[in-house]
Amino acid sequence: MRISQLSAESGVPIPTIKYYLREGLLPQGEQTSATRAEYGTAHLHRLRLIRALLEVGRLPVAAIRKVVEAVEDERTGVHTMLGTAHYALASPPDPHAGDEDWEEAREHVDRLIAELGWAVSPHAPGRDELAQTLLTLRRLGMAAIDADLLPYAAAAMNLARDHEMGMIPFDGPRDVAVETLVVCTVLYGKALEVFRRLAHESESARLLTPARDHAEVRTQDT
Amino acid sequence: MRISQLSAESGVPIPTIKYYLREGLLPQGEQTSATRAEYGTAHLHRLRLIRALLEVGRLPVAAIRKVVEAVEDERTGVHTMLGTAHYALASPPDPHAGDEDWEEAREHVDRLIAELGWAVSPHAPGRDELAQTLLTLRRLGMAAIDADLLPYAAAAMNLARDHEMGMIPFDGPRDVAVETLVVCTVLYGKALEVFRRLAHESESARLLTPARDHAEVRTQDT
After folding, report:
1. Strands (E), chain A
2. Which residues of B touch A52 (CB under 8 A)?
3. Of A24, B34, B59, B103, whose CB is crowded by the most CB atoms within 10 A?
4. Are A186 and A57 in contact (CB under 8 A)?
């Protein structure tokens, strides 16, 4: 298809497509004459991936380039390719080298992951993110012991194992696998966050004289 | 205690305490002379609550004032008070009045919550947040049917029922209950998000020829 049709089918404006071509995020089309190039479904898949990384993952162009490079390099295994996208979604804290509380929290996280038996790289940014969360909980006076954390680890693993890994089409194009991973991670993550708040409200209503008090929230809120 | 001791015990600088007093977020101390006021543990609790809403909840001062008003007004039931904090943490999308896809997504959410039997106010901002997430999933070509959403609802309710509601000290000061709710919601929510990414990595390693490929992530990442 021509660039105009690629734009129509993908919903991405032509100038934006040209920008992605210049930035190397989108591979060049097949040149059929001096002024004309042909694009195919691979380009459509790539545009969907870029949109997912940009709009859902909210990644900067430099991070998108890294993910696209992993997708394009067929020597990069699928696990590593997915890991590149996952790591790009992380927001690890600034390093706290030499801070004793930080070192202790990070060791706590490493020990916990080892005890869970999870196959997670020692360099996974999630380890630092989790250590930071632990540290903040403690500074606010919450114990944040393993008994508090394990239910979250168990819930996450159940969702990953029984539900989420099955969503990713491993046998299709590499772009599509990464796009699905990013969309699932971010948007079902958002759904989970909202369901938690709704579940809190519901349980709070059930525990705390529901009928009268529940009506109060409604009135106050309108 | 004097304001200087309140500052030392809470870790909040005196000018910030004075700002909270002016803004009405912190109740005035007991005036013991023209230039001296006494503060107590209630002030310490309030300062901890304000810090949690500010640093963990990342709420603007106007939203913090609303939460503080609900905490201070003893006629506000505990369920409504907690709901005020919860609703302040929400980030509902802009209204989409008249947009058919939006109306359909919102009806889908309302039906789902009714089928779950959850006691959630019709005005809970989470309903709109969930509808927006559904809409985005669909625009990206994901079916996002009930079978996809229900595991998240179940995981959230299990955590709320078996674990999270028990963390909140309902029999203590009102400030402490709200502070705990906000800290638990936000920080354990962050822990859950990170555990999900770690669980994905671990499952991906398990499914996709772990040994070799897993080592690749490590090498690439150093």
Report:
1. 30-33, 36-38
2. 140
3. B59
4. yes
Q: Which of B90, B212, B218 sits opposite A122 (nearest CB)?
A: B218
Does the beta carbon of A186 lie under 8 angstroms from any beta carbon of chain B?
Answer: no
Q: Predicted ipTM? A: 0.87
Q: How many beta-carbon pairs below 8 A join chains A and B?
A: 295
Residue A147 near chain B (CB below 8 Å): no
A57 inside domain:
no
Q: Hunting for tokens 């996280």 — which residue is that?
A: A109
Task: Give the residues across from B216 on adjacent strands.
Answer: none
Q: Identify whether A97 is part of a domain.
A: yes
Minimal CA separation from B122 to chain A, in Å: 7
Query: What is the tally of structural domains in chain A?
Result: 1
The answer to whether position A188 is within a domain reads: yes
Dihedral class, residue B146 (left if φ above 0, else alpha if ψ from -120 to 50, else beta): alpha
Among A109, A195, A201, A214, the residue to mutate for chain B (most B Cβ within 10 A): A195
Question: What pLDDT, on a 0 to 100 scale, did the predictor assign at position B39?
Answer: 94
Is B59 within a domain?
A: no
Compute the distance between CA of residue B103 and CA of residue B197 in angstroms, rounded to an integer: 32
pLDDT for A188 equals: 93
Q: Which domain holds residue B118?
A: 92-187
The string of pLDDT tens digits covering residues B17-50 is: 999 999 989 999 999 988 889 999 999 999 999 9
- Any idea how long chain A is? 222
A residues 53..72 contacting B (CB < 8 A): 56
Q: Which residues of A touch B80 (CB under 8 A)?
A: 213, 216-217, 220
Nearest to A198 among B80, B82, B113 (CB): B113
Q: Residue B172 pLDDT > 90, yes or no? A: no
Q: What is the pLDDT of residues A130-174, one digit of tens each?
A: 999 999 898 888 877 888 899 999 999 999 999 999 888 888 899
Higher per-residue confidence, B150 vs B55:
B150
| Nearest C-alpha neighbor of A99 from the set A52, A58, A134, A56 | A134
